[in-house]
Amino acid sequence: QVQLVESGGGLVQPGGSLRLSCAASGSLFSVMGWYRQAPGKQRELVAYIANSGLATYAESVKGRFTISRDNAKNTVYLQMNSLKPEDTAVYYCSALDYNRRDAWGQGTQVTVSS
Fold it and tell me: How many angstroms separate the CA atoms of 54 and 102, rounded?
């Protein structure tokens, strides 16, 4: 069965950096991405990346976040730089496999605060 496990969340100061990881198992994935959701807010797409390496970002994170994939580890990463308090949210890994099925991780908390 497909499983996605996020890690790397935590507390970071404004202007700081954090790297999230999502380790996937049970399938290969055509598209992998990150979403985030703050309390009382809608879940929003942060970034996604195809197996070709083509990446797309939300306008709010362009120039600050970078998404990447590691074939050997079947893992997707989100490098987050210049973090702002408004980046505080639970970050969820999501993936689309070649059977066209969506998979979701349980989420990892990112808190940006001094």
Answer: 19
Q: Which among 73, 76, 74 has a CA at the least distance from the CA of 91?
A: 76
Whole-number Å distance between alpha carbons of 35 and 21: 13
Q: In whole angstroms, what is the distance from residue 70 CA to residue 77 CA? A: 8
Answer whether residue 111 shows pLDDT above 80. yes
Cβ proximity of 78 and 46 under 8 Å? yes
d(CA 62, CA 12): 19
Give residue 108's pLDDT: 97
CA-wise closest residue to 66 among 52, 54, 81, 51:
81
Q: Computed from CA positions of residues 6, 67, 87, 96, in that sequence, does the dihedral angle turn out positive or negative? A: negative
DSSP state of 27: S
Q: What is the pLDDT of residues 4-29, one digit of tens each?
A: 999 999 999 999 999 999 999 999 99
Report, in angstroms and rounded to the nearest whole number, the Rg of the chain calculated over CA atoms. 13
